[in-house]
Write a structure and sequence with these properties.
Number of strands: 2
Oligomer: single chain
Number of domains: 1
Shape: globular
Strand order of the largest sheet: 1-2
Strand content: under 5%
Radius of gyration: 19 Å
Order of helices and strands: HHHHHHHEEHH
Distance between the termini: 37 Å
Length: 223
């Protein structure tokens, strides 16, 4: 795979939200305003980049049996760092993201890239993978937040929009609106891709993580 492909796959072909359906909790909870969604996307990309670099550097040192706890500690360290930075220099955003900021630690996208890609590839490729996946996640956040804020509130980035500010669908700006906006965009993505984006293998059979291997191992023993 070329380095350009590694960078771009997370934006379109393997978008973590629209294709892999990962990281949906912050997507649905912090997408009512574009500014908050952009902040969450940048914070997640920062953690993703830091964890990918660290895992790639330490991939030959971390014992395979304890790699998962090590990955969690690495990710939690970068989450703590971004929380401290936002609290010091962007306190309003820190308050807006709330509990979903520390929950980046358990974001499936970050752990999946560490497990599936960074621990098997060099630092340069891991950086490109992190940037691509981070941009893909941020794009998804901003796209859904734009729909919710423009149609649901009649604003964009806090700026009032003519006409829409008086005639809007308030449901999209509320909690259930996240599910509505997400469903509509997924439908559009599947329509444009002619259903290819929805044809993904989920479950243990298509999972490269340790739990899938462990389950397969138990099945072999049972047989």
């Amino acid at each position: 795979m070329s380095r350009l492909s590694i960078l771009t796959k997370g934006i379109v072909k393997e978008n973590p939200v629209f294709v892999s359906l990962l990281g949906l909790c912050p997507l649905l909870a912090v997408s009512a305003m574009v500014s908050d969604a952009l902040g969450m996307g940048i914070a997640t990309t920062f953690v993703l980049l830091g964890s990918n670099i660290s895992v790639a550097l330490l991939r030959n040192i971390i014992p395979d049996k304890v790699r998962i706890p090590c990955f969690i500690v690495i990710i939690a360290g970068f989450v703590t760092l971004i929380m401290m930075l936002l609290e010091a220099y962007a306190y309003t955003l820190h308050q807006a993201l709330g509990i979903f900021l520390p929950l980046i630690t358990v974001n499936c996208i970050i752990f999946a890239r560490a497990e599936v890609f960074a621990r098997k590839n060099k630092v340069c490729d891991s950086v490109l993978d992190a940037v691509g996946m981070g941009l893909g996640f941020t794009f998804a956040m901003v796209a859904i937040a734009t729909m919710r804020e423009v149609v649901g509130r009649g604003t964009w980035f806090g700026f009032t929009l003519p006409v829409l500010s008086e005639f809007n669908i308030s449901l999209l700006g509320q909690a259930p609106g996240g599910f509505v906006a997400f469903g509509l965009i997924i439908a559009i993505v599947n329509k444009v891709s002619k259903g290819k984006a929805a044809k993904r293998e989920f479950g243990c059979s298509g999972c490269p993580a340790a739990c899938g291997k462990f389950s397969a191992g138990k099945q072999e023993v049972a047989d």
